[in-house]
Write a structure and sequence with these properties.
Elements: E1 15-17, E2 20-22, H1 25-40, E3 43-55, E4 58-60, E5 63-65, E6 68-78, E7 83-87, H2 94-106, E8 112-114
Parallel strand pairs: 7-8
Antiparallel strand pairs: 1-2, 3-6, 4-5, 6-7
């Protein structure tokens, strides 16, 4: 444990809602909002931690290189059928920015929202 308690490097505190542990309080609170919209009928489906492959795994000089994936916090399907990929962000790291660009390039028709 660091002097910051159980906070992560970016001071996000893991939070549990409905038995689901989220990486941050902000993400957990957003999930609660999504649940309200689902109860009201605006949302039909909420998926968490959906992975999108940005680059497949490969071998180079006999060494296995892992695939590069972007893991979205939420994928939400609305009652009108449209789907939105949502990422809840506190700190926009360089890795996040790069993967986001790769995601939007590979999936140009994706509706993406950062909260």
């Amino acid at each position: 444990m660091t002097r910051w308690g159980s906070y992560s490097k970016y001071h996000a505190r893991k939070t549990t809602v409905d038995g689901i542990t989220f990486d941050s309080k902000k993400e957990a609170e957003f999930f609660c909002e999504l649940k309200l919209y689902k109860r009201a009928g605006y949302i039909t489906k909420i998926e968490r931690q959906v992975a999108y492959e940005l680059q497949p795994a490969f071998r180079h000089d006999g060494k296995a290189e892992r695939a590069i994936r972007y893991v979205a916090d939420f994928v939400v399907t609305y009652s009108d059928g449209h789907v939105e990929v949502i990422d809840v962000k506190g700190v926009r790291t360089d890795v996040y920015k790069l993967k986001r660009k790769m995601l939007l390039f590979k999936y140009p028709d994706m509706v993406f929202r950062e909260v």
